[in-house]
Design a protein that fits this description.
4-stranded antiparallel β-sheet, 11 helices, 301 residues, Endonuclease I-creI, 2 domains, 61% helix
Length: 301
């Protein structure tokens, strides 16, 4: 069972007052009803089917017929078809009218619930990036849903995908807020647990990558300095160094993979020379300067 399915099932089992019920069924019919001689609604979720059936009876006084089909394409699953033969003209007028003017937050949230139950989808937070979307047939409906979401500062946007328009949310905090607004507590806990785990894992990976990069930089710096020291030895230039710099050279060769700070700490403990990271760097600047001067003299000669 997908995360979307679990979330929709949880929403369908929540209690709703009369105002919320009317907004839910309004949104669901507007975006899911197929109009021919009668009105049909096709669903794949048994729990959502029961929920919509009850809301139709409760809010519109309609008792739709139910048919069940077995779909064998790709995998076997049941398809539920609600067929409405009563108040067809009233529902057509409801669907074809402009999007409703919703003032109260509870109406807006309920309307978003109804839309999500019919045309909403959320990616599995455990295996992919965070993404919640509503798939709509026209731009005006997509912008209307986007406006409702942004009334709650959920950073929703609209894109066109093929012949459809997609209203979507990408920020994990905003998706979490919407699930919280739906009062789907179990789904919220699952989403937050996954988000915390992934954020922690990403942080650990970033720290490990940073540490690895620092180690690689330290090793490269150490090898470069050893090459400089070997150059001075090869051309008998070590005697140009003062005694403290010679001591630093000795410890660099002894601890080739140590960072400047580590080298300074070791020398401060093992010798009478108390030196810091900047002091170590100063000595290596001297070494590099002598090497470069010698190279310049060779090139001129």
């Amino acid at each position: 069972m997908t995360f979307t399915t679990r979330l929709k099932e949880e929403i369908s089992k929540l209690d709703n007052n009369e105002v919320e019920a009317r907004s839910i069924i309004d949104a669901f019919l507007r975006y899911n009803a197929n109009i021919n001689e009668n009105i049909t609604i096709t669903l794949e979720n048994a729990s959502v089917t029961r929920f919509i059936y009850k809301l139709l009876k409760r809010t519109l006084g309609i008792t739709p017929s139910i048919r069940v089909r077995i779909q064998k394409r790709f995998r076997i699953k049941q398809i539920y078809i609600l067929e409405i033969n009563d108040k067809v003209e009233y529902i057509k007028e409801l669907i074809n009218n402009e999007s409703p003017q919703l003032d109260a937050d509870e109406e807006k949230i309920a309307y978003l619930k109804g839309a999500f139950l019919g045309i909403g989808n959320i990616s599995n937070p455990k295996t992919s990036g965070y993404h919640l979307e509503f798939i709509l047939n026209n731009e005006s409906d997509a912008l209307y849903i986007c406006g409702l979401l942004n009334d709650f500062k959920l950073n929703a946007k609209v894109i066109k995908r093929g012949k459809k328009y997609i209203t979507y949310i990408k920020m994990s905090e905003c998706i979490s807020d919407l699930i919280k607004m739906f009062k789907a507590i179990n789904s919220l806990f699952e989403f937050e647990d996954t988000r915390i785990y992934r954020d922690h894992k990403n942080m650990v990976n970033r720290l490990n990558n940073c540490e690895l990069a620092n180690q690689e930089k330290t090793i490269k710096t150490g090898l470069d300095l050893i090459n400089d020291i070997n150059y001075l030895k090869e051309y008998d230039l070590i005697n140009l160094l003062d005694e403290k710099t010679k001591l630093v050279v000795e410890y660099r060769l002894k601890y080739p993979e140590s960072s400047y700070q580590e080298l300074a700490d070791i020398m401060s403990l093992e010798t009478d020379y108390k030196v810091g990271k900047s002091g170590i760097n100063h000595h290596f600047i001297k070494i590099r300067k002598i090497k470069n001067n010698h190279l310049n003299n060779i090139s001129r000669g």
